[in-house]
Amino acid sequence: MSPSFLQTTAIVVKVVDYGESDKIVTFFTETFGKITGIAKGAKRSKKRFVNKLEFFTLLEITVIPSRRSSLCLIDQANLLNTFPGLREHYHRYTGAMLMCEMIDQWTREYDSDVELFSLLASTLEKISTCRVKENVIFFLIKMLDILGFGLQLDHCIVCDKFETNALPYSFSPARNGIICGKCRGQNDIGMTRLSISSIKTMQMSRTLPIDKLSRLKISSQSLQEAADILRLYCRFQLQRDINSWKQFELK
Amino acid sequence: MNVVPPALERLIADLNHLPGVGVKTATRLALYLLRRPAEEARVLARDLVDLHDAITLCSNCFAFSETDPCAICADSRRDSRMVCVVEEVADLMAVEKTGAFQGQYHILHGVLSPMDGIGPDEIKVDALVSRIDRQQVKEVLIATSSTVPGEATAAYLTDRLQSKDIRLTRLACGIPMGMDIKYADELTLTRAIESRKKY
What we know:
The complex is a heterodimer.
Chain A: E1 6-18, E2 22-29, E3 33-39, E4 58-64, E5 72-81, H1 85-88, H2 90-106, H3 114-127, H4 132-146, E6 169-172, E7 177-179, H5 181-184, E8 192-194, H6 196-207, H7 220-238, H8 243-250
Parallel strand pairs in A: 3-5
Antiparallel strand pairs in A: 1-2, 1-4, 2-3, 4-5, 6-7, 6-8
Helix pairs in contact in A: 2-4, 2-8, 3-4, 4-7, 6-7
Chain B: H1 6-16, H2 23-35, H3 38-54, E1 56-57, E2 64-65, H4 71-74, E3 79-86, H5 89-98, E4 103-107, H6 125-135, E5 139-142, H7 148-161, E6 167-170, H8 186-194
Parallel strand pairs in B: 3-4, 3-5, 5-6
Antiparallel strand pairs in B: 1-2
C-alpha cells in the first residue's frame, strides 16, 4: 500500500501555470527523485504557497500521491532557501535554468538519487554568488557521471591510448568518447575538437568530490569546448535540444 | 454511426483548443450555444471575427488597441517621458486600475524564460531601448512580477538600460496589505525591510 503522503526536501525545477489559479510544479527531491505535483490555488494563495513554488527554491514539501495519475497534490511547502542571487543576475538565472532543465530531461520520476540532489543544491548555492559558467559546466559533467552517462575522456576509444602528442583530439557524441588525431582519419563529421587542457580539466572535474570542484580552474577556451561537447552529447542522447543552452551561451 | 452532428463536433473541437477547456466543458458550451437563439451565436461569431480584424498592436507600447497609437499613448495629458514596463496586457490593466500612474506603458509580451526558449530577442526589449531614445524618456518603472522569471527580466532590463541617462525604478516589494507579518517568508520580509520608508 502506498503511503498517504510523502515528505521530503525538494528543489523546484519547473513551474507551469495551470488554469486560473493552479500551478503544476516539478520538484527534484532528496528522497523520491523527480516528482510532479499540482498546487491548487497557488497563484491566489497569500499564505500557503506565496513565494515558495518558484524556480530554484529549496523547500520542505508534503505531497499526497494520487491513485489515478502520476500528478501528486502539493499539500504544504516550507521555505528553506530561495537562492536570491539567482534572480538578481540574468547570467546566474540562465545557468540555474539550464541545470534545472537538464535535471528535468535526464531524470525519471521516483528515481531517487541523494548524490545528484546534493550536487544540484550545492551548485545552485555556488552560482548564486560566483563563477556561474564554470560551476554549471562542472555540474553537467558530474550529473552525467552520476546518472551513468559520463563522458569517456580517459583514452581514445579506438586505440585505447591517451598520448599528448596524438593531437588534436575530437569528441564523438555518437560513440561517447574522444578519438585521437591518429585514429580519427578523414571522416570527422559531427565531431568537436578538444584541446588537451580541456580534456584534463574535464577528467579532473569527474574525479574531484563535489565540495572540492570550486577549486578547479578552467580557461575560457576549455570552458567553451566543454560546453560545446556537452551540448552536442546531450542533444544526441536526448534526441532534442535543451532550450536553455541558447541563452546560457550568450553570456 | 456518428451520433454527434459534424457541425457540433467541429465546434466542440474548436472550443477544446481554448486554454483550460477540456472536452466535457467544450461539449457543455457547444450545447449551450445550440440551445440559445441563433442570433446570439451570430453575434458571438461576429465578435470573434472582429477580434483580429479590428484589434491591432499599438506600435508604441504594444498594447492591444483598435487605434494606433492606442488611447493611452495618444492621450496628451499622460507623461510620455515616464514609462512603466509590464509583462502582459493584464498587468497594464491592473496598474491602470489603481489610477496612481500617469505615464505611458511598455508591454514586453512575456518574460525571459530560457527553458521555454524565450530570450531577450523574443520579447519587446529592443523596442523599449529605442523608445527611450526616441521619446527622451526620463524614468522607466519596471513593473514585472516578483516571480523568479519576472525578477530576472527586471535584472536584465536594469543591465541593458544602465548606460542610459534615465531614472530606473522598480515596483516596491514587501508585505501585502492585510497580511500578518508572521506568515511572510524571509525573502519578502527582507525586501520589505530594505525598501522601508520614513513616516
